[in-house]
Amino acid sequence: MNTPAAGHAELGDWLDAQLAAHPGEIELGLTRVGRVADALDLRCPAPRSVVIGGTNGKGSCVALTAGLIGTRARVGCYTSPHLWRYNERVTIDGVPASDAALIAAFRAIEAARGETRLTFFEWGTLAALWLFKRAGVDIAILEVGLGGRLDAVNIVDADIALVVSIGLDHTDWLGETRDAIGYEKAGIYRRGRPALCSERDRPESLAAQADTIGACFQPIGQAFDIRRVDGQWRIRDGQRSVQGTIEADVLDDNLAASVAVVHRLGLSVSATDIARAAGAQRRLPGRREWHLSSPAIVYDVGHNEAAVARLIETLTDRSFARVHLVIGMLVDKPIETIGAMLAPHVDHWYPVDLSSVTPRGASAGQLCSRLGRGGDQTCFASPMAGLTAARSVADAADCIVVCGSFYTVARVRDPIT
Question: Mean pLDDT throughout 357-385?
Fold first, then answer.
């Protein structure tokens, strides 16, 4: 890699150099990243480490878990991808890493890596671990990037591992079936340590692989659960229980799983803790994020069948005169299936071009064709152009949905709001 000149590098220079040196976005395997981690002594970034994997909901679970811990411990969180700025990927006590901190981490990695080539994601993972260890965090919460078994995050032996969901995504890398994908995701489990799962309809491979590893498999519905009774929710975790009232949009299985994780870290969880954490999770940008203006707007970065099913659920729970869909997607996503799922719920379509944003982005023409919206369907050159068009015709009783990719949402949603 052509290292940016010492003392003159901006963060963007480092990120550009990483991408140029290893342009492939995905190259699974632990050998390269493990070699550099060993050189920097990063396999144990904190006294306690939590690894969270799954198809959907990983980032929300990281936010919930950190929120439940609150100020009782110093917490480092690593998530991906970012919505606006790379710094969002690494936070300590909720504060994103500064440019200077990330550059210091990258310099340490550059000095240690020798001839080892790293992917963009591996650079980021190592930087997060370096920053957490340097800051002396008490707990590191790490989100898996892709799969689990061969993901860079899996160089860390998690004290507690959680798989939140198993759906069909990245099938070229993880396998064509939920059983195959479940096997890959179970790779984050460790012998003799809690191995949680908040997917009720989980493939048999997950428990089977946990058993093979010798992990303590603790799935929802058995080890822990969440229920609504007499207008209140109740979370049960073994002999512990907590109950209270909370808005239904955060009353889900991942909340129960996050509570179970915090219990296994040796911390108690109160109804007040849950209300605070749920409030923070509800404000997580781009995750079925509602703005109840006139018209209403919802931003959702989901890009696979399971995520779209949840989006449709939230739409059908509310009553709108018409739904306007601003959608941009990557070419390797199941565009045809998602189009068929959304079609009964959408009145007006605004397909947008992402090909100028990322090499993986679908052009507006590709998107229109694969969504089955050919013919005289108008396509738009950018997400903002699509949103502007939707706003120009939407009435106060309508809803505008912006969805399909992090790239789509990031280009229209103001980071200040």
Answer: 86
